């Protein structure tokens, strides 16, 4: 499924505030960005700002939560950025599908540098990226690829995914391992950094649509399952799996993020909500948006804060979690 087809299908998922929503001691705040800008992913920076991709306008933006102001920079003609992550150099690095390149934006002067994929991978449909402990940038392409970039030399390698189309979310564990999820392939895979080979691991639910992945402090891999509406966790140490279905009718689990206390945050398009899961108590908290069709596609955070992009409303949402314990 290409980006245009997915956006159209996602818009059809009309969501209302669910009766099971519980918000307790958490505090939520919204930051409106320009209507029609096409928010997609974000990454909180160490200076307190939040970088975000504006896929609809081909831009990268930086929000200052102190006063709600933001700045944007164009990533180039035809740009359609997807994912963003903060590199070891403190700069945002972007999977820029429109120009089939990895983009770096200098946080000081907003200068854009592009690292283009080889021509034979001209339609990679870049999705998300992450840095490993050595400073290598790994990325996925939904057309059936994943790859790596050495930022200092600019050397890039691109590999074909073992089951073709589907590579989407990608994560690094505290142990330094790299894992990605395949939406169309319904699997997760561990990448061998030496050879570039990807070892497929099948979740227990068939055709679950593994969309994004995140690691907890124990290097267990948490998976958001779009088709099944589940959240699952895989422990590579013993090969085990555990799976839970999100509350409500026909959940559609899109994003996943594990915070510094190993609580798992997810987004549910069907419930129009951000969901918090406690693996210890196996309890969910549901934070419904105050507007319909929020479509939060990605989550990230820092201690005490959970951040997400409401792509349907072009707002950034922050949930303060310190009071939750």
From TrEMBL:
Lineage, top ranks: Bacteria, Pseudomonadati, Pseudomonadota, Alphaproteobacteria, Hyphomicrobiales
Enzyme class at the top of the EC tree: lyase
One family name in Pfam for this protein: Vgb_lyase
Function text: Inactivates the type B streptogramin antibiotics by linearizing the lactone ring at the ester linkage, generating a free phenylglycine carboxylate and converting the threonyl moiety into 2-amino-butenoic acid.
UniProtKB keywords: Antibiotic resistance, Lyase, Magnesium, Metal-binding
Subunit structure, as described in the record: Monomer.
Single GO cellular component term: outer membrane-bounded periplasmic space
EC number: 4.2.99.-
GO annotation, biological process: antibiotic catabolic process; response to antibiotic
GO MF: carbon-oxygen lyase activity; magnesium ion binding
Similarity-based family: Belongs to the Vgb family.
Name of the featured protein: Virginiamycin B lyase
Cofactor(s) this protein cannot do without: Mg(2+)
InterPro entries in UniProt: Vgb, Vgb_bact, WD40/YVTN_repeat-like_dom_sf
Domain of life assignment: Bacteria
